[in-house]
Amino acid sequence: MRARVRSVWLAIVGVAALLVGGAAPGFTAAPPTASGASNARQEVPARLVRLTGDPAPGVKGEAARGRPDTAYVLVGGQRIPVALTLIRGVPTGAVLARLSAPVGGDDAAIGAALARGTVAVASVRVDPGERHGTDLGEHHVLVVPVYWESSTTDAGELARSFGAMADYYKRNTNAKITLATATIMAPQKITLTTTQRDECDYTAIESKVRTITGTTPHDRFHHIVAVMENLPSCWWGGLATLGPSATGDGFIWVNGYPLASLLAHEMGHNLDLTHSGALWCFDSRGKRVPLSDTCRSTTYDDAWDVMGNQPYGFGAIGAFNLDRLGVLGVGDRVVVPGSATVTLKPLEAGVGLRSVAFIDGNARYEIEYRIAAGDDRYIDAATYVDGSGVRRTRPGGGVIIRRYGLGWDNDDQEFDVVDFHPLATEETYDRHPGLEAGESFTWPGSRRAIRVESTSSAGAVITISRPHGDVVRWYGADRYSTSLTIAQNAFGGSGSDLFLASGNVFTDALSGAGVAGRAGSPLLLTPRDDLPIDMLQVVFDTKPPLATILGGPASVGTWAESLLESQVAKVRRLAGADRYEASAAISQASFTPGVDVAYVASGLVFPDALSGAPVSGLRGGPMLLTRPDALPDAIASELRRVQPKSVVVLGGPASINDAVLGQIAAAAGVTPSRISGADRYEVSAAVSAANFPAGTDTVFIASGAIFTDALSGAPAAVVHKGPMLLVTSSRIPDAIRAELTRLKPRTIVILGGPHSVGSGVATALQAYLRS
């Protein structure tokens, strides 16, 4: 969720100065809280603007690492600075700023109170009326050269630089993002006061440029670039809005250096890309190491991406940023939950698998392969001798790994290169962080290992493993963050649709989990009247083409729906008057007549449907809910419509009695079979035994008493082609032990935290792994 649901799923910003913006409309009543109670604080519609600045070309060392981001909200004509921690997960544009105390009066009075500090901005959230679409498509650039003393503009140089930038984006995104031929105006003289010059008043420059440009379109596909006479008081070489400006378009300032590489970097900011950097890690003695518990990020020190400072050359856009832009599609990126051996295509190939991701602890790692070709031809242009006496190329290619901090410990939303050949000093450009053929690295604590088996111009074969076995746990602080963690681990980046269901009312998700998995889409759980902010971040980052809400407004409220609509191009709701009608509606929207199989489970006893959800997704059949003693009319009608070739009833007579089986047969036209057991755990084992062969690679484990983890995990089980087995919090039931012994998987994924599945169970599961 760009993963902002960090992800969920996400720069260096200029000095604290403020853009010109229009007045915001009056404040509105706050939305209801998740409990349905009215919040006493007021919210005022505002506009969030964020700026990011970059040093002049050729600047190195600490001076090249920029300065903190600037963010502010426009309220009642006033520009109110806000801390980055306050806007985590909130995209630029229309927002609702919640006030620390109620304020009376009109827009101007509210803005004045904020400017005086008598009231503060307590929180910021996306305005549900604001829509954030994809950046894919054609963008238009208006270039305005400006001067106040003398013009040094070279029209030919500007045309070449902007042409090179346009070619760069077209080439690196496979023409999914294109820049129309830039319109370059004649040099324009503007008047700046001495104070404006001395204080680098870029706000004044923007205002004068906008007066010159007039009524240009104000949307994210239009950009204004002010190419300035060099102003020494400005520390930056380029400055840009991160995403849209106050007026809705992208704005870029160039401080006398109209280089194609700088222009491409600033355009990246307009496209919502933050900076990339490098990790500098140290052991307990202060020695440089690739990874440790003591690491810090150094912004820009990424030589392999347009959002780094490119000290060696103008390289290709990294796979992680291609994913953020929505360029990578199905087959271009995979997420590895446990062990795997994969072949990565060179990033320059432009097609095929170019990104592999996995999550370890509170960090996400993205892997790509770079060779000296195309835009990366510079990477082996010079050599140096490292601290071990090995001669290496700089910055070198090979397997490049970047880390992104999850859990909101990364305010700048930065991906950082892991340096596998660290030198003693940070102030050096003799670096070769990538792994070459035959090299390997084991994470601290032996949590994860990677080995580069071989490399060639065709690709790199890499093995990702867990030296101490593949029992992994996917969980978060609560059911909502757990669903997000599962989505990040199993699905990763852009391109897939999204399913959303209530974290409190489970029945809708029971019918929809298999459908989500069949579509290769995550299922996120949400409170009724809100979307968690990290979930909104993931939605904004991944830009799903379609979001499907499972259940009616009593399950997922209209406020949450409006927030979702602000981020997603198309939102649909599958619902009914009750859980049975909703189940039939989900099936009707997802399956055509003649399915191979339909599954029927109790709408009152949930564990059987939980175990069956991955199977329904893999087999391509609906999961339909029934009352224990009568087949609902909506379900009977849906069975007649889908005309299944077979029907499987999940659970014993205590869940669905034999009379219902007769009603199913009459509606479907086939005699149903039953998978049952003495309890939910035996049913879970029986469902697995009937559908998964011995040697299945991945098995998912969830609580048989706490259902939310299994609901979110069912789509993940579908995409990883593994069963869902239920356990108690403190033991592995005998039937599950027997099934694990038969399956002997390579990876066991525990869904949920220790409260759901205890640490003793996690330890015991190690014994069932394939050696």
Structure, described:
This protein has about 775 residues and is an alpha/beta fold. About 25% of the residues lie in helices and about 25% in strands. The strands form seven sheets. Strands 1, 2, 3, 4, 5, 6, 7, 8, 9, 10, 11 and 12 form a twelve-stranded mixed sheet that branches. Strands 13, 14, 15, 16, 18, 19, 22 and 23 form an eight-stranded mixed sheet that branches. The relative contact order is 0.09. This is Peptidase M11 gametolysin domain-containing protein. Keywords: Signal.
**Runs with pLDDT <50, length 5+?**
1-39
- State the helicity in percent bands: 10-25%
What is the number of beta strands?
Answer: 38
For the CA atoms, what is the radius of gyration? 28 Å
Calculate the mean pLDDT score and round it.
86
Major pleated sheet = 12 strands, mixed
Separation, N- and C-terminal Cα atoms: 36 Å
- Tally the helices: 18
- Structural class given helices, strands, pairing? alpha/beta
Strand content: 25-35%
Shape: globular
Domain Peptidase M11 gametolysin: 162-277
Signal peptide: 1-29
Pfam families: CW_binding_2, Peptidase_M11
Protein name: Peptidase M11 gametolysin domain-containing protein
Walk me through the topology.
Blueprint: E1 43-55, E2 70-75, E3 78-81, E4 93-99, H1 107-116, E5 121-126, E6 137-147, H2 155-172, E7 177-179, E8 183-184, E9 188-189, H3 194-198, H4 202-213, E10 222-228, E11 236-241, E12 250-254, H5 260-270, E13 276-282, E14 288-289, E15 295-299, H6 319-325, E16 333-335, E17 340-344, E18 355-360, E19 363-370, E20 382-385, E21 391-394, E22 398-405, E23 415-417, E24 440-442, E25 449-456, E26 459-465, E27 471-474, H7 479-490, E28 498-502, H8 507-518, E29 523-526, H9 533-542, E30 546-550, H10 558-565, E31 570-574, H11 579-590, E32 598-602, H12 607-619, E33 623-626, H13 633-642, E34 647-650, H14 658-668, E35 673-675, H15 680-691, E36 698-703, H16 708-719, E37 724-727, H17 734-743, E38 747-751, H18 759-765
Helix pairs in contact: 2-5, 7-16, 8-11, 8-12, 8-16, 11-13, 12-15, 12-16, 13-14, 15-17
